[in-house]
Amino acid sequence: MAEDPVIRAEGLSVRFGSKTIFKDVSFEVRRGEIFVILGGSGCGKSTLLKALIGLVPLAAGHAWLLGEELAKEDDNERRALLRRIGVMWQSGALFGSMTLAENVELPLEEHTDLSRPAREALARSKLGLVGLGDAAAKLPAEISGGMAKRAGIARAMALDPPLLFLDEPGAGLDPITSAGLDKLIKDIARDTGTTFVVVTHELQSILAIGDRCIMLDKEAQGMIAEGDPRQLKAESTQPTVRAFFRREAA
Ligand SMILES: Nc1ncnc2c1ncn2[C@@H]1O[C@H](COP(=O)(O)OP(=O)(O)OP(=O)(O)O)[C@@H](O)[C@H]1O
């Protein structure tokens, strides 16, 4: 029998007031894959991510994370489930007055009883994992944008989540730095078995890291494609999907 998916989304709809952002969105994310949520600006990618982790209410549908339905859990169970999930928000800045190591230690301080030396050692190992082993004592103002994203990933990984959400990780980075970040994400997925859900509209990134993807569309108010992004690029006949992947006018 196939393994249970890490995420199962069934018929998800989100509305803000009378405005439907998307409806009837269904997909599964399998263990260990890098799953990309893509689409043009304002189609609801970030909203879908927030809906999956319970930060935005569902108007319809059900979402299971790691086999549990967040909406059905009581507060304690919900908190316990969310502790098993890492998130790096697009705006998820590091705390400026704290070193990178202290930033990574923060979730450990909040959610574990580990001693200070144990927390420090773990933070150093997470920073090492993202290539920032030598920068642990630096302040966010002393590092580049690409390094800040890496530190954000290290912080999101502090509690060893089996599932990691990244909201527009390449935003604001130059193409070479962004490609380096893509390689890091692929390496982490391969080396740790972490499942990634990545929100992005950057085609190079999608093709470089995405094992599978869904594409949302503003006009359709929902999903217009699902599958291997390279295959969608080669084979899709849907005009908006083709336009996105081939950089053609729809
Ligand atoms: N809390 C909210 N209340 C009302 N409208 C909202 C709220 N959050 C998002 N929206 C609207 O929902 C739509 C989708 O926004 P969202 O940020 O999810 O899109 P996106 O695909 O992530 O876009 P981008 O790539 O530009 O970040 C937008 O029209 C946005 O204005």
Automatic annotation (TrEMBL):
InterPro entries: AAA+_ATPase, ABC_transporter-like_ATP-bd, ABC_transporter-like_CS, P-loop_NTPase. The keyword Nucleotide-binding applies. It comes from the Bacteria. GO terms for molecular function: ATP binding; ATP hydrolysis activity. Gene3D superfamilies: P-loop containing nucleotide triphosphate hydrolases. Residues 7-243 form the ABC transporter domain. Pfam families: ABC_tran. Keywords: ATP-binding, Nucleotide-binding, Transport. This is ABC transporter ATP-binding protein. It comes from Neoroseomonas lacus.
